[in-house]
């Protein structure tokens, strides 16, 4: 049972021209499933490869259970990694694929057999052991890849976009299975994805990465309800958060199409936290409400309505921006309606235009 701790870890490529990870700190606690999420190219895989020992950082330290492993080769770390493309050996049977790692470590035949059969049973692939990878479906191959990873009884379990090649339905099933597996193994696990919905549904905690840096690490609800930067607010949540670019003068917030006064208790700390007078207010689509014209903060017209089962998305233009509100599917609003828009202010977020959240 160990945790993993990255301190000031830096990895560059091409003689320092590409900064893949930029002095990151990350603590993966023993027994937790931490999801690393961010757009393509933000440094997720490089972070995983550094933890696995497949890349050597240019700076910083990596510790497992308090022992430094920064420069240890992969075979000397108790880490198992599952990749997007499964990376099964085509010329070996499922049994041989699963046994390979233990064999390389010099385990005896009996131990290997015991471990492989335990992992096969755990992943429910006991009847596939004599097959070759080409004789398996995508879902079965992924189970074998997971089985092969757990055979070694890893202290730290790394999963790099392991579900990307599966169809939507199978992905949903495998997400739950991976969560259950991780809880059963009771190990520290890092799961990488670029899909924020996958991250939100799986992680005990989520680390949001952007351009080689970790923007925020927190449980999913906190990431959603209390994003600490414009980037996190924008990246997490579907439909996306609405941003209103405003200015603050005294206690007055001005936007192209509305203005209102803030209480002193908000205006003062807000003014103190901003670099200038510009502020970006973020409001999630479910925190915008539809009312009669003249009754809300501003009036506009409904451009498009998109049904989503029990809810519907109402698209409207506010200034030169398209905004989205999410309302119950039975809300009395139609395309082309003139409406007023109200705001659930306690759930709004104030950001500096340069990124950070200004008011907690
Ligand atoms: P992600 O997994 O989030 O898509 P990566 O960790 O793969 O991101 O890549 C982060 C950055 O580092 C990207 O700009 C990528 O092009 C660069 N990079 C990754 N590996 C290498 C490499 N071996 N050589 C050069 N650049 C690399």
Summary?
By secondary structure, this protein is an alpha+beta fold. The protein contains 9 helices and 20 strands.
Overall description:
Belongs to the ABC transporter superfamily. Carbohydrate uptake transporter-1 (CUT1) (TC 3.A.1.1) family. Part of the ABC transporter complex XacGHIJK involved in the uptake of xylose and arabinose. Responsible for energy coupling to the transport system. It is found in: Cell membrane. With 360 residues, the protein is an alpha+beta fold. It folds into 2 domains: 4-235, Rossmann fold (3-Layer(aba) Sandwich); 242-351, OB fold (Dihydrolipoamide Acetyltransferase, E2P). It is built from 9 helices and 20 strands. Helix content is 26%, strand content 34%. The protein starts with a strand and ends in a 9-residue tail after the last strand. Helix 2 (94-104) packs across helix 3 (109-122) and helix 2 (94-104) packs parallel to helix 4 (138-151).
